[in-house]
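Final report, section 2: Outcomes. Of the targets proposed, Urea ABC transporter permease subunit UrtC is the one most frequently requested by collaborating groups, and we therefore present its record in full.
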Amino acid sequence: MSAATGRRRWSFWIGLAVAAVLLFAVAPAVLSDFRLGLLAKFLCYGMVAVGIGLAWGRGGMLTLGQGVFFGLGAYMMAMHLKLADAELRGDAVPDFMQFAGVRVLPALWAPFASPVVTVLAILVVPGLLALVLGLGVFRRRVKGAYFAILSQALAAAFAILLIGQQTLGGSNGLNRFRSFFALSLNDPANRLLLFFLTAAALLLTVLATRQLMVSRYGELLVAVRDQEERVRFLGYDPATIKVVAYVSAAFFAGIGGALFVPVVGIISPNDVGVVPSIAFLAGVAIGGRTTLLGPVLGAVGVAWTQSLLSEQFPAGWTYLQGALFILVIGFLPAGLAGIGPLLRRWRRRRVPPPAVVEKEAELVA
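The predicted structure is given below as C-alpha coordinates.
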Protein backbone atom coordinates (compact mmCIF):
# COMPACT_ATOMS: atom_id res chain seq x y z
CA MET A 1 0.00 0.00 0.00
CA SER A 2 1.45 3.37 -1.05
CA ALA A 3 1.84 6.31 1.30
CA ALA A 4 -0.84 8.28 -0.56
CA THR A 5 -3.30 5.39 -0.29
CA GLY A 6 -2.56 5.08 3.40
CA ARG A 7 -3.17 8.79 3.95
CA ARG A 8 -6.49 8.61 2.11
CA ARG A 9 -7.49 5.59 4.16
CA TRP A 10 -6.72 7.21 7.48
CA SER A 11 -8.26 10.52 6.44
CA PHE A 12 -11.51 8.71 5.66
CA TRP A 13 -11.69 6.99 9.05
CA ILE A 14 -10.75 10.20 10.85
CA GLY A 15 -13.43 12.09 8.92
CA LEU A 16 -16.00 9.41 9.69
CA ALA A 17 -15.11 9.50 13.40
CA VAL A 18 -15.41 13.30 13.45
CA ALA A 19 -18.78 13.06 11.70
CA ALA A 20 -19.99 10.51 14.26
CA VAL A 21 -18.97 12.74 17.16
CA LEU A 22 -20.64 15.77 15.58
CA LEU A 23 -23.87 13.90 14.87
CA PHE A 24 -24.25 11.87 18.06
CA ALA A 25 -22.74 14.23 20.64
CA VAL A 26 -22.33 17.82 19.46
CA ALA A 27 -25.49 18.34 17.39
CA PRO A 28 -27.98 17.18 20.09
CA ALA A 29 -26.19 19.31 22.66
CA VAL A 30 -26.06 22.60 20.75
CA LEU A 31 -29.06 22.54 18.39
CA SER A 32 -32.65 23.26 19.29
CA ASP A 33 -35.32 20.67 18.60
CA PHE A 34 -36.33 22.55 15.45
CA ARG A 35 -32.78 22.74 14.07
CA LEU A 36 -32.13 19.13 15.00
CA GLY A 37 -35.21 18.11 13.02
CA LEU A 38 -33.94 20.14 10.06
CA LEU A 39 -30.57 18.40 10.28
CA ALA A 40 -32.28 15.01 10.30
CA LYS A 41 -34.16 16.03 7.15
CA PHE A 42 -30.92 17.03 5.45
CA LEU A 43 -29.28 13.75 6.47
CA CYS A 44 -32.01 11.98 4.51
CA TYR A 45 -30.94 14.04 1.50
CA GLY A 46 -27.38 12.95 2.25
CA MET A 47 -28.31 9.29 1.73
CA VAL A 48 -29.63 10.12 -1.72
CA ALA A 49 -26.46 12.09 -2.43
CA VAL A 50 -24.24 9.14 -1.54
CA GLY A 51 -25.96 7.02 -4.17
CA ILE A 52 -25.72 9.79 -6.77
CA GLY A 53 -22.02 10.15 -6.03
CA LEU A 54 -21.57 6.43 -6.69
CA ALA A 55 -23.65 6.33 -9.88
CA TRP A 56 -22.65 9.70 -11.35
CA GLY A 57 -19.27 10.48 -9.83
CA ARG A 58 -17.81 6.99 -10.20
CA GLY A 59 -20.03 5.52 -12.90
CA GLY A 60 -20.66 8.54 -15.11
CA MET A 61 -24.45 8.06 -15.05
CA LEU A 62 -26.14 11.45 -14.77
CA THR A 63 -29.14 10.38 -12.67
CA LEU A 64 -31.79 13.08 -12.78
CA GLY A 65 -34.57 10.85 -11.48
CA GLN A 66 -33.56 9.84 -7.96
CA GLY A 67 -36.75 11.45 -6.70
CA VAL A 68 -38.60 8.36 -7.98
CA PHE A 69 -36.78 5.98 -5.64
CA PHE A 70 -36.83 8.52 -2.82
CA GLY A 71 -40.58 8.83 -3.30
CA LEU A 72 -41.18 5.09 -3.41
CA GLY A 73 -39.53 4.60 -0.03
CA ALA A 74 -41.30 7.65 1.39
CA TYR A 75 -44.80 6.74 0.22
CA MET A 76 -44.53 3.15 1.39
CA MET A 77 -43.47 4.32 4.85
CA ALA A 78 -46.21 6.98 4.86
CA MET A 79 -48.87 4.39 3.99
CA HIS A 80 -47.81 2.22 6.91
CA LEU A 81 -47.79 5.14 9.34
CA LYS A 82 -51.26 6.25 8.25
CA LEU A 83 -52.61 2.72 8.69
CA ALA A 84 -50.98 2.45 12.11
CA ASP A 85 -52.59 5.73 13.16
CA ALA A 86 -55.97 4.53 11.89
CA GLU A 87 -55.61 1.33 13.89
CA LEU A 88 -54.87 3.30 17.04
CA ARG A 89 -58.10 5.23 16.50
CA GLY A 90 -60.03 2.07 15.71
CA ASP A 91 -60.78 3.13 12.13
CA ALA A 92 -60.77 0.93 9.05
CA VAL A 93 -59.22 3.56 6.75
CA PRO A 94 -56.94 6.57 7.25
CA ASP A 95 -58.47 9.92 8.15
CA PHE A 96 -58.11 11.60 4.73
CA MET A 97 -60.00 8.71 3.12
CA GLN A 98 -62.84 9.17 5.59
CA PHE A 99 -63.06 12.83 4.61
CA ALA A 100 -63.36 11.75 0.96
CA GLY A 101 -66.11 9.24 1.77
CA VAL A 102 -63.95 6.11 1.30
CA ARG A 103 -64.99 3.35 3.69
CA VAL A 104 -63.14 0.33 2.26
CA LEU A 105 -59.35 0.16 2.32
CA PRO A 106 -57.89 0.00 -1.23
CA ALA A 107 -56.08 -3.21 -2.11
CA LEU A 108 -52.83 -1.30 -2.68
CA TRP A 109 -52.78 -0.26 0.97
CA ALA A 110 -53.49 -3.62 2.57
CA PRO A 111 -49.92 -5.08 2.58
CA PHE A 112 -48.53 -2.01 4.32
CA ALA A 113 -50.52 -2.65 7.47
CA SER A 114 -47.68 -5.00 8.43
CA PRO A 115 -44.47 -3.31 9.63
CA VAL A 116 -42.38 -6.27 8.43
CA VAL A 117 -43.82 -6.12 4.92
CA THR A 118 -43.33 -2.37 4.87
CA VAL A 119 -39.65 -2.56 5.81
CA LEU A 120 -39.02 -5.34 3.30
CA ALA A 121 -40.81 -3.38 0.57
CA ILE A 122 -38.74 -0.27 1.31
CA LEU A 123 -35.56 -2.31 1.03
CA VAL A 124 -36.58 -4.24 -2.10
CA VAL A 125 -38.98 -2.25 -4.30
CA PRO A 126 -36.76 0.76 -5.21
CA GLY A 127 -33.82 -1.48 -6.03
CA LEU A 128 -36.03 -3.89 -7.98
CA LEU A 129 -37.44 -1.07 -10.09
CA ALA A 130 -33.92 0.25 -10.70
CA LEU A 131 -32.85 -3.26 -11.72
CA VAL A 132 -35.61 -3.52 -14.31
CA LEU A 133 -34.97 -0.03 -15.64
CA GLY A 134 -31.21 -0.45 -15.62
CA LEU A 135 -31.26 -3.72 -17.54
CA GLY A 136 -33.62 -2.24 -20.10
CA VAL A 137 -31.59 0.95 -20.55
CA PHE A 138 -27.95 -0.06 -20.18
CA ARG A 139 -28.17 -3.23 -22.25
CA ARG A 140 -29.34 -1.01 -25.09
CA ARG A 141 -26.29 1.17 -24.46
CA VAL A 142 -28.30 4.27 -23.61
CA LYS A 143 -25.97 6.72 -21.88
CA GLY A 144 -24.95 10.34 -21.55
CA ALA A 145 -27.59 13.00 -22.16
CA TYR A 146 -30.10 10.40 -23.36
CA PHE A 147 -29.98 8.57 -20.03
CA ALA A 148 -30.23 11.88 -18.13
CA ILE A 149 -33.32 12.95 -20.10
CA LEU A 150 -34.91 9.52 -19.67
CA SER A 151 -34.39 9.53 -15.90
CA GLN A 152 -35.73 13.07 -15.61
CA ALA A 153 -38.82 12.14 -17.63
CA LEU A 154 -39.35 9.21 -15.26
CA ALA A 155 -39.35 11.58 -12.28
CA ALA A 156 -41.83 13.90 -13.97
CA ALA A 157 -44.15 11.01 -14.86
CA PHE A 158 -43.98 9.66 -11.31
CA ALA A 159 -44.96 13.03 -9.81
CA ILE A 160 -47.87 13.39 -12.26
CA LEU A 161 -49.03 9.87 -11.45
CA LEU A 162 -49.06 10.64 -7.73
CA ILE A 163 -51.06 13.82 -8.24
CA GLY A 164 -53.78 11.82 -9.96
CA GLN A 165 -54.00 9.18 -7.21
CA GLN A 166 -56.50 10.45 -4.66
CA THR A 167 -56.03 7.28 -2.60
CA LEU A 168 -52.45 8.52 -2.04
CA GLY A 169 -53.49 12.04 -1.09
CA GLY A 170 -53.27 13.56 -4.57
CA SER A 171 -51.35 16.81 -4.75
CA ASN A 172 -51.57 17.21 -0.96
CA GLY A 173 -49.72 13.98 -0.31
CA LEU A 174 -49.78 12.16 3.02
CA ASN A 175 -49.20 13.97 6.32
CA ARG A 176 -50.14 14.28 10.01
CA PHE A 177 -48.38 11.16 11.25
CA ARG A 178 -48.69 10.53 14.97
CA SER A 179 -46.57 7.43 15.54
CA PHE A 180 -43.53 5.64 14.18
CA PHE A 181 -43.52 1.90 14.87
CA ALA A 182 -45.46 2.38 18.12
CA LEU A 183 -43.37 5.42 19.14
CA SER A 184 -45.17 8.72 19.55
CA LEU A 185 -43.74 11.37 17.22
CA ASN A 186 -44.86 14.09 19.63
CA ASP A 187 -42.42 12.89 22.29
CA PRO A 188 -39.10 14.82 22.15
CA ALA A 189 -37.21 11.72 23.28
CA ASN A 190 -38.58 9.74 20.35
CA ARG A 191 -37.72 12.56 17.98
CA LEU A 192 -34.16 12.44 19.25
CA LEU A 193 -34.11 8.68 18.79
CA LEU A 194 -35.31 9.15 15.23
CA PHE A 195 -32.46 11.61 14.62
CA PHE A 196 -29.94 9.07 15.89
CA LEU A 197 -31.48 6.40 13.65
CA THR A 198 -31.19 8.68 10.62
CA ALA A 199 -27.59 9.59 11.44
CA ALA A 200 -26.65 5.93 11.88
CA ALA A 201 -28.32 5.02 8.58
CA LEU A 202 -26.32 7.73 6.79
CA LEU A 203 -23.02 6.55 8.25
CA LEU A 204 -23.79 2.94 7.30
CA THR A 205 -24.63 4.11 3.79
CA VAL A 206 -21.27 5.87 3.54
CA LEU A 207 -19.47 2.74 4.78
CA ALA A 208 -21.26 0.51 2.28
CA THR A 209 -20.43 2.91 -0.56
CA ARG A 210 -16.78 3.04 0.46
CA GLN A 211 -16.62 -0.74 0.40
CA LEU A 212 -17.93 -0.69 -3.16
CA MET A 213 -15.49 2.03 -4.20
CA VAL A 214 -12.33 0.40 -2.83
CA SER A 215 -13.21 -3.05 -4.12
CA ARG A 216 -12.40 -4.43 -7.55
CA TYR A 217 -15.91 -3.52 -8.57
CA GLY A 218 -15.13 0.13 -7.84
CA GLU A 219 -12.15 -0.03 -10.18
CA LEU A 220 -14.32 -1.57 -12.90
CA LEU A 221 -16.95 1.13 -12.42
CA VAL A 222 -14.39 3.90 -12.94
CA ALA A 223 -13.01 2.03 -15.95
CA VAL A 224 -16.49 1.84 -17.48
CA ARG A 225 -16.91 5.57 -16.92
CA ASP A 226 -13.65 6.41 -18.64
CA GLN A 227 -13.28 3.68 -21.29
CA GLU A 228 -16.47 1.66 -21.67
CA GLU A 229 -15.54 0.07 -25.00
CA ARG A 230 -12.15 -1.04 -23.71
CA VAL A 231 -13.80 -2.67 -20.69
CA ARG A 232 -16.16 -4.52 -23.04
CA PHE A 233 -13.19 -5.62 -25.15
CA LEU A 234 -11.55 -7.08 -22.02
CA GLY A 235 -14.53 -9.38 -21.49
CA TYR A 236 -16.59 -7.50 -18.91
CA ASP A 237 -20.21 -6.47 -19.35
CA PRO A 238 -20.45 -2.69 -18.75
CA ALA A 239 -24.25 -2.92 -18.47
CA THR A 240 -24.04 -5.22 -15.45
CA ILE A 241 -21.46 -2.98 -13.79
CA LYS A 242 -23.67 0.08 -14.30
CA VAL A 243 -26.78 -1.71 -13.07
CA VAL A 244 -25.13 -2.54 -9.75
CA ALA A 245 -24.31 1.14 -9.13
CA TYR A 246 -27.77 2.24 -10.26
CA VAL A 247 -29.50 -0.28 -8.00
CA SER A 248 -27.30 0.72 -5.05
CA ALA A 249 -28.17 4.38 -5.58
CA ALA A 250 -31.89 3.52 -5.69
CA PHE A 251 -31.55 1.42 -2.53
CA PHE A 252 -29.96 4.31 -0.62
CA ALA A 253 -32.56 6.77 -1.93
CA GLY A 254 -35.40 4.50 -0.82
CA ILE A 255 -34.04 4.34 2.72
CA GLY A 256 -33.57 8.11 2.79
CA GLY A 257 -37.15 8.61 1.65
CA ALA A 258 -38.52 6.20 4.23
CA LEU A 259 -36.79 8.06 7.07
CA PHE A 260 -37.76 11.43 5.59
CA VAL A 261 -41.46 10.77 6.28
CA PRO A 262 -41.39 10.47 10.10
CA VAL A 263 -38.69 13.15 10.32
CA VAL A 264 -40.54 15.81 8.31
CA GLY A 265 -44.12 14.62 8.81
CA ILE A 266 -45.25 14.93 5.20
CA ILE A 267 -44.59 13.55 1.74
CA SER A 268 -46.14 14.95 -1.43
CA PRO A 269 -45.50 14.93 -5.19
CA ASN A 270 -43.55 18.18 -4.74
CA ASP A 271 -40.91 16.21 -2.85
CA VAL A 272 -40.29 13.57 -5.53
CA GLY A 273 -40.55 15.30 -8.90
CA VAL A 274 -38.04 16.90 -11.26
CA VAL A 275 -37.10 19.88 -9.08
CA PRO A 276 -36.09 17.81 -6.01
CA SER A 277 -34.16 15.40 -8.25
CA ILE A 278 -32.17 18.28 -9.73
CA ALA A 279 -31.61 19.72 -6.24
CA PHE A 280 -30.11 16.38 -5.15
CA LEU A 281 -27.76 16.54 -8.12
CA ALA A 282 -26.77 20.15 -7.49
CA GLY A 283 -25.72 19.37 -3.92
CA VAL A 284 -23.58 16.46 -5.12
CA ALA A 285 -21.91 18.58 -7.81
CA ILE A 286 -21.15 21.40 -5.36
CA GLY A 287 -19.77 19.03 -2.72
CA GLY A 288 -17.66 16.97 -5.12
CA ARG A 289 -19.18 14.09 -7.03
CA THR A 290 -16.03 11.99 -7.39
CA THR A 291 -15.29 11.85 -3.66
CA LEU A 292 -16.92 9.78 -0.96
CA LEU A 293 -17.83 12.40 1.63
CA GLY A 294 -18.16 15.31 -0.80
CA PRO A 295 -21.72 14.46 -1.93
CA VAL A 296 -22.92 14.18 1.68
CA LEU A 297 -21.29 17.43 2.74
CA GLY A 298 -22.56 19.17 -0.39
CA ALA A 299 -26.14 17.97 0.00
CA VAL A 300 -26.32 18.75 3.71
CA GLY A 301 -24.42 22.03 3.39
CA VAL A 302 -26.48 23.35 0.49
CA ALA A 303 -29.76 22.39 2.16
CA TRP A 304 -28.69 23.94 5.48
CA THR A 305 -27.54 27.13 3.76
CA GLN A 306 -30.79 27.28 1.84
CA SER A 307 -32.77 26.98 5.07
CA LEU A 308 -30.78 29.74 6.79
CA LEU A 309 -30.66 32.18 3.89
CA SER A 310 -34.24 31.66 2.77
CA GLU A 311 -35.35 32.79 6.22
CA GLN A 312 -33.67 36.16 5.59
CA PHE A 313 -33.82 36.40 1.79
CA PRO A 314 -36.73 34.27 0.57
CA ALA A 315 -36.52 35.51 -3.02
CA GLY A 316 -32.73 35.61 -3.31
CA TRP A 317 -31.71 32.07 -2.45
CA THR A 318 -32.49 30.63 -5.89
CA TYR A 319 -30.14 33.13 -7.56
CA LEU A 320 -27.40 32.41 -5.03
CA GLN A 321 -27.78 28.67 -5.54
CA GLY A 322 -27.52 29.11 -9.30
CA ALA A 323 -24.44 31.32 -8.97
CA LEU A 324 -22.77 28.81 -6.66
CA PHE A 325 -23.54 25.97 -9.06
CA ILE A 326 -22.06 27.92 -12.01
CA LEU A 327 -18.99 28.86 -9.96
CA VAL A 328 -18.29 25.27 -9.00
CA ILE A 329 -18.87 23.84 -12.47
CA GLY A 330 -16.79 26.56 -14.14
CA PHE A 331 -13.85 26.87 -11.74
CA LEU A 332 -14.00 23.86 -9.40
CA PRO A 333 -15.02 20.81 -11.44
CA ALA A 334 -14.14 18.57 -8.49
CA GLY A 335 -16.51 20.53 -6.22
CA LEU A 336 -15.71 22.02 -2.86
CA ALA A 337 -13.95 18.77 -1.93
CA GLY A 338 -11.36 19.61 -4.59
CA ILE A 339 -10.24 22.84 -2.92
CA GLY A 340 -7.73 21.01 -0.68
CA PRO A 341 -5.93 19.15 -3.50
CA LEU A 342 -6.00 22.33 -5.60
CA LEU A 343 -4.28 24.32 -2.84
CA ARG A 344 -1.68 21.57 -2.38
CA ARG A 345 -0.87 21.58 -6.09
CA TRP A 346 -0.62 25.37 -6.07
CA ARG A 347 1.72 25.24 -3.06
CA ARG A 348 3.97 22.66 -4.76
CA ARG A 349 4.24 24.87 -7.83
CA ARG A 350 5.19 27.83 -5.62
CA VAL A 351 7.97 25.90 -3.82
CA PRO A 352 10.91 25.05 -6.15
CA PRO A 353 12.24 21.48 -6.04
CA PRO A 354 15.44 20.82 -4.03
CA ALA A 355 17.53 20.31 -7.18
CA VAL A 356 16.66 23.78 -8.42
CA VAL A 357 17.50 25.30 -5.03
CA GLU A 358 20.91 23.57 -4.96
CA LYS A 359 21.70 24.70 -8.52
CA GLU A 360 20.87 28.30 -7.66
CA ALA A 361 23.07 28.09 -4.57
CA GLU A 362 26.00 26.81 -6.68
CA LEU A 363 25.56 29.65 -9.14
CA VAL A 364 25.57 32.21 -6.34
CA ALA A 365 28.67 30.68 -4.81
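The chain has a mean pLDDT of 86.
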